[in-house]
Amino acid sequence: MRSSSFTVTLMAALWLLVPSAASAQTLCPDGSYVGQGPCRLCPDGSYVGQGSGCTLAPDGSYVPGGSSSRLTPKGDYIEGGKGMILCPDGTYVAGSRCVLAPDGSYVGR
């Protein structure tokens, strides 16, 4: 019985490592990725995720959300009202974790 218990535990652990729709990124029409879809087209032609509005940041870029933007230590703007995390490639994203997109960029969750 011990080996079958180990097998069940191992299978459960592997299942947790397989990406699911909840952890997947959304590919936008311009080839960029957002952490959560659907993609929303902003006035400058860029896309933001989460189906929320486009918020104009002070540098002229757009971030998702309906209220504010937040300046990162690198001088970029991200969505306000969420945490900020430094990703392995040196970029900052809004959220509590970095998720690697298929194009090698990171999106926040």
Description of the molecule:
The chain is globular and about 30 Å long. The longest helix is centred in the first third of the chain and has 16 residues, at 2-17. Helix content is 15%, strand content 29%. The chain has a two-stranded antiparallel ribbon. It is α+β, with helices and mostly antiparallel strands and 109 residues long. A hairpin with a 5-residue loop joins β7 (69-71) and β8 (77-79). The chain is built from one helix and twelve strands. The protein has one domain. The protein has one helix spanning 2-17, and strands at 26-27, 33-34, 40-41, 47-48, 54-56, 62-64, 69-71, 77-79, 84-86, 92-94, 98-100, 106-108.
Task: Give a short summary of the structure.
The chain has 109 residues and is of the alpha+beta class.
Global mean pLDDT: 80
Strand order, sheet with most strands: 1-2
> How many E strands?
12
Strand content range: 25-35%
The domain tally reads 1
Query: What can be said about the biggest beta sheet?
Result: 2 strands, antiparallel
Q: Give the termini distance in whole angstroms.
A: 40 Å
SSE layout and pairing:
Layout: H1 2-17, E1 26-27, E2 33-34, E3 40-41, E4 47-48, E5 54-56, E6 62-64, E7 69-71, E8 77-79, E9 84-86, E10 92-94, E11 98-100, E12 106-108
Antiparallel strand pairs: 1-2, 3-4, 5-6, 7-8, 9-10, 11-12
Structural descriptors:
109 residues, alpha+beta, two-stranded antiparallel ribbon, 1 helix, 12 strands, 15% helix
